[in-house]
Structures are given as structure tokens and as C-alpha cells.
Write a structure and sequence with these properties.
By secondary structure, the protein is mainly alpha-helical. It contains six helices and no strands. Helix 1 (2-15) runs antiparallel to helix 6 (99-134). 29% of the residues are buried.
Amino acid sequence: MQKFDNFLNCFQVLKNSNRQMAMTDEIYRTGVIGQFCLTFEQMWKTLQEVMRAHAINEAENGSPREILKAGYKFSFLDNEEVWLQMLKDRNSAMHIYDEEAFVGVLNRVYDSYIDTFDRFAVKIRVKIQEIESEST
């Protein structure tokens, strides 16, 4: 599934980023935040496509927020609060000019979001395998 592959590629770059460099180098930090935004974008599009393949009507249309809520409702996602905070951070990250707020997003990326993306990858891989096994 191409969208999932795109997510995995973006996520791998984020996962390989260096927290210490992000905290000390402004350009590097901006790149990490940008990569987080790309990874999030690929994640929700992957989620939408996989839920559509599972015939979940709520996934047919909708904003990222609606797709996240449907993903949680149908057990494709865990910890709805973290996902909604991630959406909020994605929406505001490129417009943060306050150093403290910027560091807050970075800390959440490294303390929570990377692990959350990891769990998503495992869960979605299973959901894709379910689709593939049904079609054989």
C-alpha cells in the first residue's frame, strides 16, 4: 500500500533524527518539526485509506480530526488524546515563534509521538494484512 510506504519513509527519517541536535541547532530543529508534520500528514492519509478498505463509512470523507476520531472509534488508534494533541501541534508547528512553545512540540515528538507512530505502524500493518488475507 503506497500511502503506508510513504508514511514509513517519512517516519523513518523522523525516527532517525537526533534530539540533542534538534535542541541546539535552529535549522535542524525546523527540519525535525517539518518532518513531524510530513509524517503526521502521511499517517492520517494512510489511516483513511486503510479504514476505507475495511469499509468504514466514516473514512470516506473528512478532515484529519474526523479521520482520527473514526480511527479511535474503530480501534485503529489508541490514546485519542495524544493523537488530537499531535493534530494540534501539526496545525500550529509551522507558525510557532515562541521558543518555549517550539521546544514543547519537540519534546512531545521525542517523548511521545515517535512511540505513538511506532504503535500505529504495527497496528496498520496488521490491518493491511487482514485486507490482503480477505482478498485471497
